[in-house]
Every structure is written in C-alpha cells, then in structure tokens.
Amino acid sequence: MSVQLIKQGDRPEWAVIPYEEYVSLIEKAEMLEDIQDYDAAKAALERGDEELVPGEVVDALLDGANPIKVWRTFRGKTRQELAEQVGISAAYLSQLETKKRTGSLEILSAMARALNVTLEDLSIHAE
Question: What are φ and ψ of residue 57, in 5° steps?
Fold first, then answer.
C-alpha cells in the first residue's frame, strides 16, 4: 500500500492513500462490522436474550393478522390458558382477538408478559 504522510510538526496528521485502497479498506471495515453484529446476535440467542421467530409468524403479522392470536398460537397456548394467565375470560380474549373489543393497558401488559413479548408486539395497527 502506498501512503503519503502529511505531518504537522513532528507528528503525522494525515495519511493519503490511493482511492482503490481506500475503497478496499472501507469494504473490509464493513465486513468486520457485519461479523461483529453476527457474533453479538449469536451470543444473544445463546444467552436467551433473543429468539428466532419463524417466517410464518412474521408473515401473519405483516399480513394484518391479530397479533394477540398470532403470538398465542406461536406460544402454543389455548385461549383458555392465556385468559387464565391474564385473569380474563376466554370470551373476552376471543373478542380481543377478533377486534370486537380493545384491551386496557393493564390487560395488554399482562398478556404481553404471559406471551413473552413486548407491549408493542401486541399493538394492532389500523388497516
């Protein structure tokens, strides 16, 4: 690599390199960042801080399916089981899943905890 050093007094202040070498260094730095991000994500998965969500779950959410029902089904819970954990009736949970009712912050927070998701994960966006 050919480098031209520009000094300020006795100390190097600038390094001038050919553009192709600059581009190569940028690409290598980006690859290193990608590797570090991958390693961090893998470590988070191994610690249990993150989880992999199947594509079917993501697709259902993106297609506008009710997030409460999607996450309940993904977690393998029946309506009755989740309702009991949250402290509501299965009928009320059914109404939440069919958008006939909206839940209070307290109910939705309890549901998020029971499903091990964030409150934001349960938000229902207007169509």
Answer: -70, -45
Q: H/E element holding 7?
A: strand 4-8
Spell out where 11-100 has E strands: 11-16
Start-to-end Cα distance in the chain: 56
In terms of Cα–Cα distance, which of 68, 65, 71 is closest to 88? 68
Task: Check pLDDT > 60 for residue 127.
Answer: no
Q: Per-residue confidence at 23, pLDDT binned at 50, 70, 90?
A: very high
pLDDT single digits (tens) 77-126: 999 999 999 999 999 999 999 989 988 999 999 999 999 999 999 986 54
Average pLDDT score, the chain = 93
CA distance 21 to 104: 58
Domain spans in the chain, listed from the N-terminal domain onward: 4-47, 55-122
Answer positive or negative: Cα dihedral of 109, 91, 78, 61.
Answer: negative
Note whether 115 and 75 are within 8 A (CB): yes
Domain 55-122 has CATH 1.10.260.40: yes
